[in-house]
């Protein structure tokens, strides 16, 4: 054992540039933020001394559609309206503008605390160019102001988890404090590496920026007190005076993980010596209390499938009558949510109680292939019409993803141009966690078809399995964690073969729902295969084990 312990004064610190928790007023862009919010809730349920450090973005993006085109609108949010207490002002030093003032807020929830920072001119999530000064200022604010806020209010973190490379300045601030306090640089680097974890969440490095020496001198250097630490950071720059943020996180972390087994195998990063970096695998889990239909969760606990901490027990088959009852309750809840939502035409949608429903509810990214089921219009129409089935699409494209903005518009215009598809395929605007829950509990089958090798983990499919949807998926991300044969696997040597497999599985999912024995069999198999993967306490336990921390 390495002697690292947790307490209220020495908590587990979790830094994330994105946090998605509507109950606390912070709305992220997708999976990274939702995972951060789930991790905090899981820590609270386990009684873990835990602090989450994240910005509070006062401009929140919402989506509307005009002729199939995504239009961004903005809503102002203030931390005071969500129970946060302002506790300090901090300044980020910038050579080009002297100082940038930040308001620091905190909110304590059970054993956990959220430290958040921002200002009226801080910008929205992922504002500006990926490698621009505005993005660097946000990242420096998170690391330097976040670390110093923790220290000011009595927290001396035992360990730090850095979610994505954008949070690297937390480790720089920690190192700077140690060296300024008199510790030798070599010893300080060793100390930080022992207690810092870099978690990489994506194979598509949209979350990573690359900056110039000039930008660092302007925005980062003024916040480093030790000249020795600055020279150490400067030594990491390439010969052309550029640095990737992952370089900082790799060099300042002694522990690194990817978020599924497959992700850890294929991640390709190298340290400054040119050695390939080894990543542990800690597959993402979810907060089951938040995402599961309460009636279904009650049944899991009554049968011993889960205990009151959502730890996995004995997975027993569920009776078909219970499965159909839970899905009927879920369909009602879905339609209640849809009453207050609109489709691509600005109209509310209701899905008939006895109709079969497919859904795609994920970020609109090219590698996730939201357009794939609509490649053969005649075939998708036949599946929907012959089986009285509906298909709901939802999800946003990133602000600067022009390719997917265009593909989304093209897809919606294709649907609009076909009278039958227009009746049965609905795109629901402004995807958020409320809609994600509603679709998980109210759909029959979920479509998850990323290009194999491109999805780091994904968690939408986990929410579908816990809510007794049939999963139709490629064998990618966390789905590939186990050699499962339970879900309906989309396979093929090329896209044409994958498409044929997808349509076959869509038809098969409908037939399964018509047969009680087959329905119970596949849903039991999905739970048996994947409940350990889905488990949030398992995920948190894996992270604690990386640090050899035993939670009593």
Structure description:
Strand 5 (85-94) and strand 6 (98-109) form a beta hairpin. This protein is 39% helix and 19% strand. A nine-stranded mixed β-sheet has the order 5-6-7-2-1-8-9-12-13, with helices on both faces. Strands 16-15-14-17-18-19 form a six-stranded parallel β-sheet, with helices on both faces. The chain has a two-stranded antiparallel sheet with strand order 3-4. The protein folds into two domains: 12-58 and 69-284 and 539-546, Rossmann fold (3-Layer(aba) Sandwich); 288-534, Rossmann fold (3-Layer(aba) Sandwich), CATH 3.40.50. The model has no long low-confidence stretch (mean pLDDT 93). Helix 16 packs across helix 18 (516-534). It is built from 19 helices and 19 strands.
Structural class label: alpha/beta
The tally of structural domains comes to 2
CATH architecture of the largest domain: 3-Layer(aba) Sandwich
Q: Give the biggest beta sheet.
A: 9 strands, mixed
Gap between N and C termini, in Å?
Answer: 15 Å
CATH topology annotation of the largest domain: Rossmann fold
Q: What would the average pLDDT be, to the nearest integer?
A: 93
The outline comes out as: globular
* Rg of Cα set: 24 Å
State the name of the first-level CATH class of the largest domain.
Answer: Alpha Beta
Give the strand content: 15-25%
CATH superfamily of the largest domain: Glycogen Phosphorylase B
Summarize this structure briefly:
This protein is of the alpha/beta class and 552 residues long.
